[in-house]
Q: What sequence folds into this?
């Protein structure tokens, strides 16, 4: 029982104000044709008490426990009991005034106070208003709870998405680092004079893949710079057996993209590309417009050499799906001894 009336306890002042207005309404309405203030006081107080009891039975018991839980037959049964109680209370109130204030002289009673139908309409009107408010309040609360649950669900989904993105980045880091260190190892064996410059470029790359990659976005020109550093390292390794063309057409230097978005494609071209006529050919074309970034890369490739795309492309596909949903377009194909990647993503930053 205490649980049922707990919400009411927090709104006592409002309830007192409401029932005070109801009492005043009854008093003014039934005072028509009456000059007996003592009778009006008790008559109005009894009707208000009946209205309060029945309204709270509906608002805090029948509606939440039966109507809203779809126990319709039980709700109808207990509603009929409440109606009988109200009818009996109204009739008892009329008899009370008839006996104690008008000495059994029915004709002396004010017209409105001896009309049971008028009294019932007034009482049921108050009950309906109180019950309707309870239903509307419940619906509003349900909508708010639904919104809260939806927000929590979306927040959880976002956290899971961020965790998965971090996991994908963690997979890309060692994969890319392993390939780059192998390149430097080859030069160390040759004791190349260019090793200091290579170490500097590798240091920049390591800073990028280990620290900058944790940022939500980086400048596109920074990603391009690291692509060029990577190409420079690979040129030292391949020497005359490599031909790379990197064409850039940017409309704005402030464009931002997620870090390590394009670099894995370039790395994949070197790692899994195939030399044809003793030369590995790689062509890269990067173009931006106001709305999109287009990235096209193709490298020589022999399908019968058991080459694989590797973990880099697989993870970058998952990242694209999570970052851009259905707004990005990635096409990977091979034809005429060429492995071709076409990427198109929307630009959110200008």
A:
């Amino acid at each position: 029982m205490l649980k049922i009336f707990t919400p009411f306890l927090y709104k006592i002042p409002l309830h007192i104000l409401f029932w005070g207005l109801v009492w005043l309404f009854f008093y003014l309405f039934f005072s028509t044709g009456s000059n007996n203030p003592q009778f009006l006081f008790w008559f109005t107080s009894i009707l208000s008490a009946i209205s309060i009891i029945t309204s709270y039975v509906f608002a805090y018991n029948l509606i939440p426990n039966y109507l809203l839980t779809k126990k319709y037959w039980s709700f109808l049964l207990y509603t009929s009991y409440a109606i009988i109680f109200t009818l009996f209370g109204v009739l008892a109130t009329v008899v009370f005034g008839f006996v104690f204030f008008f000495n059994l002289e029915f004709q002396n009673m004010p017209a409105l106070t001896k009309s049971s139908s008028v009294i019932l309409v007034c009482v049921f009107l108050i009950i309906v208003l109180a019950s309707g408010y309870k239903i509307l309040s419940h619906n509003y609360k349900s909508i708010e709870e639904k919104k809260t649950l939806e927000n929590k669900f979306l927040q959880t989904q976002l956290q899971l998405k961020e965790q998965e993105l971090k996991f994908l980045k963690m997979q890309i880091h060692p994969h890319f680092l392993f390939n780059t260190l192998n390149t430097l190892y080859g030069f160390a064996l040759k004791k190349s004079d260019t090793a200091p410059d290579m170490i500097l470029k590798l240091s920049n790359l390591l800073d990028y893949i280990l620290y900058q990659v944790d940022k939500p976005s980086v400048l596109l020109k920074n990603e391009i710079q690291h692509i060029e550093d990577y190409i420079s390292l690979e040129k030292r390794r391949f020497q005359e057996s490599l031909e790379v063309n990197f064409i850039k057409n940017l409309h704005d230097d402030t464009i931002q993209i997620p870090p390590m978005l394009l670099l894995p494609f370039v790395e994949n071209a070197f790692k899994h590309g195939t030399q044809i006529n003793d030369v590995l050919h790689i062509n890269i074309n990067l173009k931006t417009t106001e709305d999109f970034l287009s990235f096209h890369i193709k490298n020589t490739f022999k399908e019968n050499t058991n080459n694989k795309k590797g973990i880099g492309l697989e993870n970058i596909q998952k990242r694209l799906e999570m970052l851009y949903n259905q707004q990005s377009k990635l096409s990977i194909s091979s034809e005429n001894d060429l492995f071709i990647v076409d990427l198109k993503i929307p630009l959110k930053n200008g």
Q: What stands out?
A: Residues 116-190 form the longest helix (75 residues). The chain has two domains: 2-151, 192-346. Residues 192-346 form a domain with the Heat Shock Protein 90 fold (CATH 3.30.565.10).
